[in-house]
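Q: Here's a chain of 178 amino acids. Please give me its 3D structure as tokens.
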Amino acid sequence: MSLSLPVVNLETAKFDCIFGRGCEGICCQNGRPSVEPEEAAQIEALLPRIKPLLRPDARKLLEKDGYLSNRKKLGFPMLRVIDQWCIFFNQGCVLHTIGMEDGKSYAYKPSQCALFPIQRNSKGQWYVRQWGYEGEQWDLFCLNPAASPVPASESLRAEMEYAAQFEANESTKSDENR
């Protein structure tokens, strides 16, 4: 199923995730995404599979205080960070690893992580985060359009497909609540 996603800056955006090829997951360092209730329930169900994959200090924190902090973003609790890394980071995202094992790489990650660097602006339009666009403040090198010759329309196909599915699911939820 091919879903189309209107992305306002797609024609000019450049992006190439180089995790494992010079980047060791900088977006997972102090990223602190928020976690919606459905996402938290999914993570809770996976905890027996998650715990053995965590860094020892992250596992201790999870067992002591849980994986959600008291801080909120977009009205939802944020993931905890330990030693400047997401609690679920261990040489890559543990949630992504489990998703890949199950054949659905984005399924267990908080939507903000799964969609990165695609995001909605204040008007609800989708855009690719880039330096100098929509007041971007995160200075990650991967958000610098001059750092990559790869058009985001090519490199972010999977993320745009996921965003389109995410949007369709949100629309369905909204219709059900009417």
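Q: Can you summarize the key feature?
A: The chain has a mean pLDDT of 91.
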